[in-house]
Amino acid sequence: MIEPQAAAPPRSARTRGGRSGSGSGALRLPVRQGTGRFLVLAGVFVCAACGLVYELELVALATYLMGDSVTQASVVLSVMVFAMGIGSLAAKRLRRHAAAAFGAVEAGLALVGGCSAMVLYAVFAWTGDWGGVWASGPRGLLVAFSLATGLLIGAEVPLLMELIQRIRRQDAGGAVADLSAADYVGALVGGLAFPFLLLPFLGQLTGALITGAVNAVVGGALVLGLFRQDLTPRARRLLVAANICVLAVLATAAVLVDDFERAARHAMYGADVRVALHTDVQEVLLTGGRDGRPLNLFLDGRLRVSGRDERRYHEALVHPAMNGPHHRVLVLGGGDGLAVREVLRHTGVHRVDVVEADAGVVRLARRDRALSALNAHALDDPRVRVFVADAFDWLRRAPAAVYDVVVSDLPHPGITENTKLYSQEFYGLARRMLAADGRLVVHGGAMASRPRDFWTVDATVRAAGFRTVAYRVRGRQDGYAAGPDRGQARTAHAHRDWGFVLAARHEPAPRLDPAGPRPRTLTDAALAADTRAAERIRVPGLPPSTLVHPRYSG
């Protein structure tokens, strides 16, 4: 009579490879089976949270350095998901050495993910070149980090699946459900921790380094503590040494991160950085403004204001729109106070409302000695009221027919997060705010280098029920090209002009107010010539941009 199969050790008491593939034998745990499963699922939770932080960190850094968040998010996440699939397949060959392999994967992921932000920021700061195709140069480095991170994240789940089955064999569906639940909940926590905890309190660089350290500690502790008997002595020594080295690298980088950021800022902006702060909205930097050096204001790495030629930009933006009634004026954006300065030069202005998304920029415009001198303390004028709000949401709640002039002083529409402020719906709200004879002026971007974007702005304003006229003003040809059109801090192809759209219910007249102040950089003759020059390069037939169908390039 054949002895029943139950006489052999049950599968739940065997290892698939024993001590790193040594054959058979029950896996000995330092804790009970239930506690062991809980610890593995807790490790899945933490690793998933760290993995999502790495993904979001790469997306955020790519968006900050290159702009166009939709493109950067699509490229980084699609490359990473593809690599996760490859990593899962590759992990199949490592299942016999699951504990050692998982420990190595977590050490590598902690190092790659933790240091990715600092390495990419360093390359950008000291090379300043993100041009070219995705497969070459620093952009290729971003793809390489996305691939490496995705490969390592993808290898985690198959190895964890093997480890949890070694503790207690269960049906595959139940094991997958347990791991997936821990993985998804961890991803939720990591996804919420990044924007609400890591980014505002620690910043991109320190946040990534601390995430890497947590990843290394949890991965190493799980393997060396729970699955220690599944490792050979040599594997244990190697894993301990690897984790010590990874933690030493991350700790050293965290200690030096402030010095690194200062050096990187000097490499990007020069040695004259006076103010560098992270507000709730963006990074704000001021350079110059002392000892006769021109003041520059950078927002998220883009030159927003240059003391060399900001007057040329702001006079062209404001003064043509002030030709007519201008008792009540609304400035959208313009938290630096420079557009408001030009508005207040006109007699008859009774009220100026400023809608700015970043309270930090407003505080800086009021308190920084150089910037407040440049804007002539315009934001402290009793006629000026400042509202810290999103311009789109603010317009939706404001009463109709309140303003004689609306000045849209916003970053150019090629920045993806700003496209709603250049949509047909947005200009429809602005039209509702205007009195019957009111005027709207829009900064539409660089006309020469981004003609389709500019003329899409014109087409969109027309679609909202306005009659329009376009004009452009050239910036200085030396040094930085200033204004919101400016791209990254250093680039070989600076925008050399600004394009504007003047709009009204009736055909607008692009002329200066004959009873108003005389701008230093603008005359009626120059404005007429700028209008003719713009018309010669019109791109006809472009459709308007809407909230559901934005048409601006990245």
Total of helices? 14
C-alpha end-to-end distance: 77 Å
- Give the tally of structural domains: 2
Low-confidence stretches: 1-26, 131-136, 477-495
Proportion of beta-strand residues: 5-15%
Mean pLDDT: 87
Helical fraction: 40-55%
Strand order of the main beta sheet, please? 7-6-5-8-9-11-10
CATH superfamily of the largest domain: Vaccinia Virus protein VP39
Q: Judging from the principal axes of the Cα atoms, what is the shape?
A: elongated
Q: At the third CATH level, what is the topology name of the largest domain?
A: Rossmann fold
Please write the CATH class name of the largest domain: Alpha Beta
Helix-strand pattern: HHHHHHEEEEHEHEHHEHEHEHEEH
Please state the second-level CATH architecture of the largest domain: 3-Layer(aba) Sandwich
Number of strands: 11
Rg (C-alpha, Å): 29 Å
Decide which structural class fits the backbone.
Answer: alpha/beta
